[in-house]
What does this fold into?
Amino acid sequence: MFDNSIGVAIVIQNNSLSVVIIGGGAAGMSAAIAARQAAERASVNCSITLLERNARPGTKISISGGGKCNVTHQGTPAELLEKGFLRMNERRFLRNALYGFSSTDLLELLHSRGVETEVRPDGKVFPLSGDASSVAMAFEELLKELSVKIISSCRVRSVESKNGMFQITSTAEPLTADIVILATGGVSYSKTGTTGDGLIIARKMGHSIKEPSAALAPIVTLKAPPASLSGISLRSAALVASAAGKTVERRGDLLFTHRGFSGPAALSLSRDIAELCRESGSATLFADLFPEHTPAELDQLLLQHARRHGAQMVRKFLQICPIAPLKKGLSEAPHGTIPTALVPFIIRYALLEIDITWSALQKEQRHSLLTVLKRFPLGTVRKVPLDQGEVSAGGVDLGEVNPKTMESRITPNLFICGELLDYAGEIGGYNLQAAFSTGWTAGTSALKKY
Ligand SMILES: Cc1cc2nc3c(=O)[nH]c(=O)nc-3n(C[C@H](O)[C@H](O)[C@H](O)COP(=O)(O)OP(=O)(O)OC[C@H]3O[C@@H](n4cnc5c(N)ncnc54)[C@H](O)[C@@H]3O)c2cc1C
It folds into this structure.
């Protein structure tokens, strides 16, 4: 049989095609199911073997979403791409896969296996039972029904391509395969089996690897935030990180923890912070409490307020001051007010006396207050530990994998899918969806040649 796309012939030995999938996470299990279905459609006699290093497949699915599994996000593929993947090259790469196996397709599959789901108001989709392992089990049972051979507690050590066949060495018996689908996941949360084996295997097979770094990780600052701020949240503020003249920023809720920062803004920006730290050694963090206003606009607002409320203490004003107010002014507080616990720090960092009134505030003092409101200092970060990221960015270079098929452009009949690839999605179910979709594409395409 002949593959037109890369011009490599595969002779099916003993009339049976052997497909080996390495890694039994979302991507690997999805690939195995899709491969079996594609083989049945094409009436290809095919053995499908899934090698998983853990005692059972689906370990990471079972701990995802705090044990509840935010399995996907509601919306069209275009909406998911826009909301879930901020980097254009990753969006372009994932486009085909997300259209090929969408969140609707994933939910249909889960519903057909008795896993009912609920959509939260923010669009996140969870199993109705609130039990992440129900998702992993649904996939595992389907694999068994489809006669996918699961070899668990089997760690693959190497894959070599020889004379059109793959030789797979592992802690179990050696295997040969016509097609290999590599789905070993990322490099974080190593206790779930993801220690980066797939990167070593892919590199040995000629692939370039983008150095992995943490994404969706809590931020730990060199000096912990003051204890009195631990647990407060800045609603809809902008978290800003800067290093060596480069600035990155993310809008969203920011949570102060006892070691640094978490919450959607921190998790989302962690990938960029990790990159800044790698390039420059460290990054400085700020919160912009007035992200809708330029410094000049904010100065006008403060000036107007000072004229009208001269007798009011600045501290009292800050206690009722909206956080991230809309352009219109200070009358509305759509995101609540500045947390009271933060006010003494704003006053202190702006070098103001605690009881100063608006009428006593000099121009320079107003400017210093403005600077703190626009750049509230949050500390310095040296490193975002890789293992703590819910996902890892970096991995197999996207340019070396065909986005329509997930086939390696370097080694024919090798398919690569899931978090092992150099993409990372936002919080919200996008990462599992991307793993299921790229896995599905790999499994379907692997059999398409026949
Ligand atoms: C704590 C946590 C919570 C998360 N919550 C969510 C969430 O709610 N929603 C969401 O969308 N995403 C979430 N994610 C991210 C999401 O789980 C991953 O992006 C997704 O599971 C990646 O799927 P994958 O199949 O590519 O990799 P994995 O699911 O990591 O699967 C890879 C598999 O390969 C196996 N493996 C590795 N090396 C070898 C080897 N040498 N031989 C054999 N097997 C090997 C591993 O044991 C593992 O089972 C979360 C991640 C974490 C860590």
User: Anything to note?
Assistant: Residues 22-28, 51-54, 59-61, 63-65, 69-70, 155-156, 183-185, 189, 193-194, 197-198, 390-391, 418-419, 429-432, 435 surround flavin-adenine dinucleotide (CB under 6 Å). The longest strand covers residues 233-243. Residues 295-378 form one domain. The chain has 13 helices and 21 strands.
